[in-house]
Structure formats: structure tokens, C-alpha cells
């Protein structure tokens, strides 16, 4: 019985505050859409790939030990790619107005396990700039690694290119709108129950019985203003009629 009453109270609160819930949810959803489409700066990502392989020599076959050596070098290469030695040269070559640390934050270097392929990904507010930076980083690294580590085992596997209509990786408007809708709905429902909890007026006989733990013996009906006025007029007319008869 308690569960039924509790569920009934919940549904009653939701029905009572439905307008509030709808307004808050709609406002949150609209705000999420406006912020996603107009306030947040689109961020684009582009990537290039380099291959860490055996340098060309007189050997026709690549030995297993050479491959293992290259794989072990990849972790070192991943650090060198984002080092000031490489990034400062990229900034100089491209004429970028940023520090090597700021450029470092735009770049992500990754590689699959036991793979000799290294991915250099760059995020920027311009798809063209992201592609240009990625290609320049790969090119500068390929040229510099020979003098840094005295090896020549890096080649560019694929260059970053910009498609006709690049799509930003962030923000994601539809996802943001869905999150805003869910947050608005949850928040509005929570607000509805908070307001209901703070409202300590007694609204029904059942609430009174529960609060006082005594049965209700009777109720006083509310008389509308129109009914009160009509009854008052009838009373006045009756008094006047009685006075007239008495005088006669």
C-alpha cells in the first residue's frame, strides 16, 4: 500500500509541475544547441603516418633483429617528435606565432603495438593548418632524426590531406544537445520534487490523516465568490421583505 501511495505521489508531483519540467528542459536543450553551434570553436584533426623501417643497404632481406630494433626505437621517436628540437624548427619553417609547448599540445603521437607505423595527429581550428602542421612535423622529423640519432630509417608513409568538406572532431552538436536535454530533464524533475518538498501546505484529506494519524470527521467546502455574493443578495432581499411586512 505504501509503494502504491508513494508512486501515486510521484506521479502527482510530476503532473503538477509538468509545465516547469517542460520549460526547464526546453531551455537547457536550446542552450546546448546555441552553445554548440555558435559559441564553441570547431576543432579539426588531420593525421600523417611515418614508417620506421630498415635503412637501405646491400642486404636484400630485413633481419628479424632489425625489425625488433626499429620497434624499440619507436617509443624514443614518439618523444623526439614532440621535442623542442623538432617543434622549434616546425614553428620557424611555418612562421607560426606560438611556442613549442603550445604546438606540443596540438600534437598526438601514437603507434599500434608491434607496428612500425607511427601516427602524427594534429588538432587545430583550421583543417588546412592541421594538415600543414602534421606534414611539416613529419618532414622535419625525417630530416632531423639522421643527425640526432645517426640513423636513417624513417620514411613518410602517407601525408595529411584536407577533404572537400572536413568535419570537426569537436564540438559534437547532436551529442551536446542530447546531453543538455538529459541534464535539463533530470534537473527539472529534481527541482520539481524540491519545490514539492519545501511546500508544507496540506492539500488533501489523506495528507491530514497521515500527518495527524487521526481520521477526518468532516470537511468544509470552499464557497466560490459568486456563490457568496448570490447568497448575500438573497439574505438582504429577505431582510427587506420581512421589514416591509412588519411595518404593514
UniProtKB/TrEMBL annotation:
Transmembrane segment boundaries: 18-40, 174-195
Topology versus the membrane: Multi-pass membrane protein
Cited InterPro entries: Bact_polysacc_biosynth/exp (IPR050445), LPS_length_determ_N (IPR003856)
Compartment(s) of residence: Cell membrane
GO MF annotation terms: protein tyrosine kinase activity
Start and end residues of each Polysaccharide chain length determinant N-terminal domain: 5-93
GO cellular component: plasma membrane
Pfam families reported for this sequence: Wzz (PF02706)
KW Nucleus (keyword) present: no
Keywords for the protein's UniProt record, in alphabetical order: Cell membrane, Membrane, Transmembrane, Transmembrane helix
Family label: Belongs to the CpsC/CapA family.
Protein name: Wzz/FepE/Etk N-terminal domain-containing protein
Source organism per UniProt: Bacillus halotolerans
Amino acid at each position: 500500500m505504501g509503494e502504491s501511495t508513494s508512486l501515486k505521489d510521484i506521479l502527482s508531483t510530476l503532473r503538477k509541475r509538468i509545465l516547469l519540467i517542460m520549460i526547464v528542459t526546453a531551455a537547457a536543450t536550446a542552450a546546448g544547441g546555441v552553445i554548440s553551434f555558435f559559441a564553441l570553436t570547431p576543432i579539426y584533426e588531420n593525421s600523417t603516418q611515418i614508417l620506421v623501417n630498415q635503412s637501405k643497404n646491400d642486404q636484400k632481406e630485413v633481419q628479424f633483429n632489425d625489425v625488433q630494433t626499429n620497434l624499440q626505437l619507436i617509443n624514443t621517436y614518439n618523444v623526439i617528435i614532440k621535442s623542442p628540437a623538432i617543434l622549434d624548427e616546425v614553428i620557424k619553417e611555418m612562421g607560426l606565432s606560438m611556442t613549442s609547448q603550445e604546438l606540443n599540445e596540438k600534437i598526438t603521437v601514437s603507434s599500434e603495438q608491434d607496428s612500425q607505423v607511427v601516427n602524427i595527429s594534429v588538432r587545430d581550428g583550421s583543417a588546412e593548418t592541421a594538415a600543414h602542421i602534421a606534414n611539416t612535423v613529419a618532414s622535419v622529423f625525417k630530416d632531423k632524426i639522421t643527425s640526432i640519432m645517426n640513423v636513417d630509417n624513417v620514411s613518410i608513409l602517407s601525408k595529411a590531406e584536407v577533404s572537400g568538406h572536413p568535419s570537426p572532431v569537436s564540438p559534437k552538436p547532436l551529442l551536446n544537445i542530447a546531453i543538455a536535454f538529459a541534464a535539463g530533464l533530470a534537473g527539472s524533475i529534481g527541482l520539481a520534487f524540491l519545490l514539492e518538498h519545501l511546500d508544507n501546505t496540506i492539500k488533501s484529506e489523506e495528507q491530514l490523516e497521515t500527518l495527524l494519524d487521526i481520521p477526518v470527521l468532516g470537511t468544509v467546502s470552499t464557497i466560490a465568490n459568486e456563490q457568496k455574493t448570490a447568497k448575500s443578495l438573497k439574505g438582504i432581499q429577505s431582510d427587506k421583505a420581512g421589514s416591509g411586512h412588519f411595518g404593514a
